[in-house]
Amino acid sequence: VQPNNYSTFYDDQRQNWSIMFESEKAAMDFSKQVCIAKCNSSSVLESVLYQDLVLGEGQGVEGGDSLEIAYTGWLFQNNGLGQVFDSNVHKDKLLRLKLGSGKVIKGWEEGMMGMKKGGRRYLIIPPAWAYGAQGVAGRVPPDSTLVFEVEVRRVKLVKEGSGSDGLSVSSRDSPAPSPVPSSDGFSAD
Question: What are the boundaries of the region Disordered (predicted)?
Answer without folding.
Answer: 160-189
